Amino acid sequence: MQNRIKELEEIARQIRIDILTMIYKAGDGHPGASLSVTDLLTALYFEVMNIDPANPQKPDRDRFILSKGHACPALYAALARRGFFSRDELPRLRSLDSMLQGHPDMNKTPGIDSTSGSLGNGISIGLGMVLAARLTGYDYYTYVITGDGELQEGVVWEAATAAAKYKAGRLIVLVDNNGLQSSGPVEEVSGLYPILPKWEAFGWHCQEIDGHRFEQILPALQKARDCTDRPSLILAHTVKGQGVPFMIGDNSWHKRVPTTEEYQQAMHILGGPCS
Amino acid sequence: MTALGNTRLAFIETLIELAEQDPKTVLVCADSVLVVKGRQFAQKYPDRFIDVGIAEQNAVNCAAGMAACGLIPYVATYAGFLTMRACEQIRTFVAYPGLNVKLIGANGGISAGEREGVTHQFFEDLGILRAIPGITIVVPADDTQVRLAARAIHKIHGPAYVRIGSGRDPRVDGREIPFELGKIRILAEHGKDLTLFTNGFVVNRALKAAERLAQEGIRAVVADVHTLKPLDKEGIITLLKQTGAAVTIEDHNIIGGLGSAIAECSVEDCPVPIQRIGLPDCFPRSGLPDPLLDYYHIGINDIVEAARAVVRKKKI
After folding, report:
1. Is there a single domain that holds both residue B147 and residue B255?
2. Do B146 and B99 belong to one domain?
3. Residues B51 and B159 grouped into a single domain
4. Last residue of some domain: B146, B170, B194?
5. Looking at residue A81, what is its pLDDT?
6. Residue A134: beta bridge partners?
7. Do residues B213 and B311 share a domain?
8. Distance (Å, rounded) from C-alpha B7 to C-alpha B144?
9. Distance from C-alpha of B46 to C-alpha of B153, rounded to nearest angstrom
10. Which pick of A227, A245, B101, B316 has the fewest CB atoms within 10 Å?
11. Residue B164 near residue B8, CB atoms below 8 Å
């Protein structure tokens, strides 16, 4: 277990390097949120999910939806590292002829199960996938990563009630609770808090973890999978810009391209190539 | 006296028939099971009936998730709550990925509003959906066409919208002509002086206007444009060329629906005098269907006058 955690930490480090390199070279993208979801994505794609990069459409695969689609540099980096497509694609992010759209596109990028980027919609799409599994005779899980800010969208709570009604036990939602949204701290922008009691009241199986520690992420995902009679939510406390200290606490990194100096500084911190 | 059909029942009976043949067929409601007469479906196929409650955005997103996993969900509820409340979900999560979700909108048009007033009269649905790429849009004229339309959209892969009514929907008088998705159908041909393009529950008005016009020597073709998208441009342009003038008659805002579609088609390929008849870009009142349509100038007299005007312009 301890060795595996070390391996996952190493993969997450490489993904963070890929994220910043991709955004730096493409000259566009959202680094802050990409860095906060990296460890959750690493756990899902490199340890937990039943997927096959050689057969991205296999019908019994686990599904994943990045509801906070703007964090897609992290997803693209994870998919490339996992072998869904070449890492050479990464710097072509957002360019006209690239398979890597500004936000995830299920028809253009292998391994993307749902188009996303308009906030708040991932949980309800995931519920549809879970309901479909029942009708088509599969027992796959559907994982959704949502931001904390996007929980302000009304459709989130529509999905919360419907998933409880349908006892959607194979729906597992991870909240990337980094505390910041586009215009500032979540607690200043909205009256969203407290988050967990709301989901508990809706009848969901709820857990609270440190979203950067695999020692906590992996057991929480296991518990969520074991609970098959109701949907699960994992409130994962994360840090926007995690891994790059000068980005932490500075929300301008929500959407910002590092200068050459900043990029080299970040690579130095992460132990990446300073190309 | 025009006979009434029930387009809501026609839809659900056809859906049950489709579900018998195709196990992928699912009905998704937003507390709309009574609206779309869905009880029969729910009783026969309880597993394939999903009701997410009064939550249209969630209904459309759930359908998108199901379609992404190979099912063919039909989201059926009031036309306006579907196309306006869940507009972005339709656009971004159904149309953009091209998922095989079917959308069924009840109370289409002001005449199908069940005297409920503006909140339940939907006259923007077609314009909204027409502006989104990739959605097949069908506006059936009566219950028979709803059956044919539902079978037709089931056969194609991809998003489609079918407008249905209040359940007390006028039948097209004395005509049953084969329905082909994407092709206009000629309902009457008195001559080639002008074309009356129409669809939906006002088709009878166009037919009656054409008869009255014939009596005064203005001979019209009546064409049913049941498929608003993809538009049968070839068929429409042929008629515009043959007749040189047109009136459009629809139960929708005159902006965005049939009138706009025909005008766009004409202005690019065959400019001719056109008048559009429909709700004149205002919020309508409550009322019974026929008086309501007359009040908002979607009456037989209005069609006749518009026809005279475009024929006159043609001669100048």
Report:
1. no
2. yes
3. yes
4. B170
5. 98
6. none
7. yes
8. 8
9. 23
10. B316
11. yes
Distance (Å, whole) CA B245 – CA A203? 62
Range of the domain at B89: 4-170
Nearest to A236 by CA among A31, A36, A30, A52: A36
pLDDT at position B177, please?
72
Is the Cβ pair A131, B62 closer than 8 Å?
A: yes
Query: Residue A274 pLDDT > 80, yes or no?
Result: no
Q: Is the pLDDT of residue A275 over 70?
A: no
B177 within a domain of the structure (yes/no) = no
- B5: tokens are 């059909």
Residues whose CB falls within 8 Å of the CB of residue A215, separated by 6 or more in sequence, listed in order = A5
- Predicted pLDDT at B105: 98
| Residue ranges, chain B, pLDDT below 50 | none
CB contact under 8 A, A155 and B50: no
Encode pLDDT of A142-184 as tens digits.
999 999 999 999 999 999 999 999 999 999 999 999 999 999 9
Task: Give the nearest chain A residue to B29 (CA atoms).
Answer: A162
- The pLDDT of residue B173: 80
Partners of A64 on chain B (C-beta within 8 Å) are none
What is the pLDDT at residue A273? 86
**H or E element: which one contains B283?**
none
Question: Per the CB < 8 Å rule, is B92 touching A118?
Answer: yes
Cβ pair B61, A125 in contact under 8 A? yes
The domains found in chain A, sorted by start residue, are 2-270 (3.40.50.970)
- B216 at interface of A, judged by CB pairs closer than 8 A: no
- Taking residue A233's Cβ as centre, other Cβ atoms within 10 Å add up to 28
* Residue B175 domain-assigned (yes or no): no
Please state the rounded mean pLDDT for residues A96-100. Answer: 96
- Note whether A135 contacts B50, CB cutoff 8 Å: no
Same domain, B18 and B115: yes
Query: Contact B201/B169 with Cβ under 8 angstroms?
Result: yes
Residue B252 is predicted with a pLDDT of 98
